[in-house]
């Protein structure tokens, strides 16, 4: 009731409206020291891109939550207590390369992004317990010791150069997303990845065998980088996994019962060109993508019964055999090289979307296209229908 009485007062309502407009207008600004001193609406700033030496702590806006120290030359040592406690997001530019001392980073910080030149040891006790997201730049390549990363951390990203062994106990049990950079190529030790991990991404250079009991039991998304080309041992992929992506160099046979029954999305890279053995693809699979190099016959009973989306890459040019495509399939995409006659009754009646590539140049025989089809895309070389 008190709120309505206040709101009905036109003078107060106008004043509130003016303050809201100023918060909207001045919430994000780009300033240096001289322009900041002349700025009249400091108290409305919540998002500040700062160029030049830091101001005194008491000169920061009272509601500042995001600070971007983006100046190319910024490499100033930050004393403990110099940054306001209101900060929740802090980003350093690419030249910054100073040690963080205990008390340097404010206690309410949730997101910390450090630029490319940073390559200092991060000491235990320097990262606040509020931190949930931490991103290192490209040059960082220091050992991260146990107890350095706070138990609040959920997302951790390493940059291009990081290539250090991650010891058990280093990564906190709160971590859900972990991304390694390009040069990381270390053996993943047992118990080094916490069971809380849901998403794991390896960079381009990673090419290590992943033994059983290495990957955590709650992992749902796993991405291998460009150079990974190792046999996947049985029982090495957890039963929680739903999305698996291989990089371009992967070209190994996937034996039966290697892929978990939880898997729904599988993507092969451009070099993969192996026969797919029967029972190697789990029935849980709904989306399957082959890379540009795949050009193998797909026999009947190879593809799982729940598959809905199937994509062939550039080089695929094999006859589609009767009963080779499951009745669950709704979307089928052929690459540019595909140029085979589609036999009658070879496409399932569940199919709604069908796409042919540039080289396809065949007419369609009676009963070759199912009545369920809603979208048909053909390349520009077709001169017969």
TrEMBL record:
SUPFAM superfamilies: L domain-like
Species of provenance: Dictyostelium purpureum (Slime mold)
Protein name, as recorded: FNIP repeat-containing protein
Top-level taxon of the source organism: Eukaryota
Presence of keyword Repeat: yes
Listed InterPro entries: FNIP, STK_FNIP-Repeat
Record's keyword terms, sorted: Repeat
């Amino acid at each position: 009731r008190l709120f309505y009485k206040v709101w009905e007062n036109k003078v107060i309502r106008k004043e509130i409206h003016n303050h809201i407009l100023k918060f909207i207008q001045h919430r994000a600004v780009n300033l240096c020291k001289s322009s900041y001193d002349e700025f009249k609406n400091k108290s409305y700033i919540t998002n500040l891109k700062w160029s030049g030496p830091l101001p005194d702590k008491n000169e920061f806006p009272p509601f500042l939550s995001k600070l971007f120290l983006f100046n190319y030359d910024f490499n100033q040592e930050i004393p403990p207590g110099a940054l306001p406690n209101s900060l929740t997001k802090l980003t350093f530019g690419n030249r910054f390369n100073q040690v963080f001392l205990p008390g340097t980073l404010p206690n309410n910080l949730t997101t910390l992004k450090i630029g490319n030149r940073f390559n200092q040891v991060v000491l235990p006790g320097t990262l606040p317990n509020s931190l949930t997201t931490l991103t290192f730049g490209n040059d960082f390549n220091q050992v991260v010791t146990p107890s350095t990363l706070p138990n609040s951390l959920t997302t951790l990203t390493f940059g291009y150069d990081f290539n250090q062994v991650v010891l058990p106990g280093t990564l906190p049990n709160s971590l859900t997303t972990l991304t390694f950079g390009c040069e990381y190529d270390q053996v993943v030790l047992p118990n080094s990845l916490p069971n809380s991990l849901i998403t794991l991404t390896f960079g381009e250079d990673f090419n290590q065998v992943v033994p059983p009991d290495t990957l955590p039991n709650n992992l749902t998304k796993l991405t291998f980088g460009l150079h990974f080309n190792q046999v996947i041992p049985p029982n090495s992929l957890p039963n929680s996994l739903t999305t698996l992506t291989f990089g371009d160099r992967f070209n190994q046979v996937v034996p039966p019962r290697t892929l978990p029954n939880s898997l729904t999305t599988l993507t092969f890279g451009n070099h993969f060109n192996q026969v797919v053995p029967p029972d190697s693809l789990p029935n849980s699979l709904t989306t399957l993508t082959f890379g540009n190099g795949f050009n193998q016959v797909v026999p009947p009973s190879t593809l799982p019964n729940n598959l809905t989306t199937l994509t062939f890459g550039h080089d695929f040019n094999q006859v589609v055999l009767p009963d080779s495509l499951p009745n669950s399939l709704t979307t089928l995409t052929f690459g540019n090289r595909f140029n085979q006659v589609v036999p009658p009754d070879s496409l399932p009646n569940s199919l709604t979307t069908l796409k042919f590539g540039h080289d396809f140049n065949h007419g369609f025989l009676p009963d070759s296209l199912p009545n369920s089809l809603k979208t048909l895309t053909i390349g520009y070389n077709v001169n017969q229908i």
